[in-house]
Amino acid sequence: MNKTALIERLAACHRDGSRLKAADWADAVRDEADAYAVQDGVAQALSWRFERWKSGGASAQGPFSHSPVNPVAGKSLLGVEAEVALRVDSSGAPEAMCIAIELVASRWQEGLDAPALLRMADHQSNAGLLLGPWRPYRELDWSQLEWRLTLPGQPDIVRRGGHSLNQPAGVLPAWFRHATRNGASIAAGTVVTTGAWGGLHPLAGPALGRLAIEGLGEFSFSAAA
After folding, report:
1. What is the pLDDT of residue 164?
2. What is the total count of domains within the chain?
3. In angstroms, what CA-CA distances link 16 with 11, 72, 76?
4. How far is the C-alpha of 34 from the C-alpha of 121, rounded, in Å?
5. Does a structural domain hold residue 189?
6. H helices within the chain, ranges in order?
7. Is residue 4 part of a domain?
8. Are 67 and 175 spatial neighbours (Cβ–Cβ below 8 Å)?
9. In this structure, are residues 142 and 126 in contact, taking their beta carbons and an 8 Å threshold?
10. What local confidence, expressed as pLDDT, does residue 16 receive?
């Protein structure tokens, strides 16, 4: 199996909801460069406009990972992630921010247990991005912000801080280098969601609920939003 075939099959999975067996495709993605090539190929096959991205890092020094984001909410969701999204100018500098919910799904039968490179090739298990109201960007005491996630049939999740970089804009330099690596330009107004607060939150019901982050307000969301 090669990257071209995997691009075709993953694009088909997005269209028809099918899933692939990871063991059949392990040789198609040998390194991060292969994974990113598959990401780009699938996004182009599905006519995504590269106007929404996800980016994250394990620490301020990296490693970082990046992916274009599906503009349409997916189905068969595994969970959601509480995030802060940034709207940037053409140089990659943040201009606005909002509460965001990333929808998580997988085109692999093994779900989040699929090998890391295959999950990266599959747009890091992204299934869409739901955005709250925009506010002008400003620095906050991110590590101390209280946030609350309410999901159906589950106790509220209430925590303080939890972003891996303690600074959502910390992913932007690495993301900008990645997004422009092949000579592409960044359109003003591009949206970058910047990493999960508190990790993945599995769903026990439909993808609807409410996320509140101190200093950013509240956002009631559903997968149909």
Report:
1. 80
2. 1
3. 9, 14, 12
4. 8
5. yes
6. 3-16, 32-45, 116-121, 172-179
7. no
8. no
9. no
10. 94
Examine residue 107 and state whether it is found in any structural domain, yes or no. Answer: yes
Average pLDDT in the 103-131 region? 97
Q: How far is CA 117 from CA 26, 124, 128, 167, in A?
A: 8, 9, 20, 26
* Mean pLDDT of all residues belonging to the chain: 94
Q: What is the CATH number of the domain that holds 109?
A: 3.90.850.10
pLDDT in tens, 40-62: 999 999 999 999 999 998 887 88
Structure tokens at 89: 């100018």
Q: From the centroid of its chain, how far is CA 117?
A: 16
Residue 184: partners with Cβ closer than 8 Å, 6 or more residues away = 50
Domain coverage including residue 199: 50-222
The answer to whether the peptide bond before residue 63 is cis (omega within 30 degrees of 0) is: yes
pLDDT band at 224 (very low <50, low <70, confident <90, very high): low
44 in any annotated domain = no
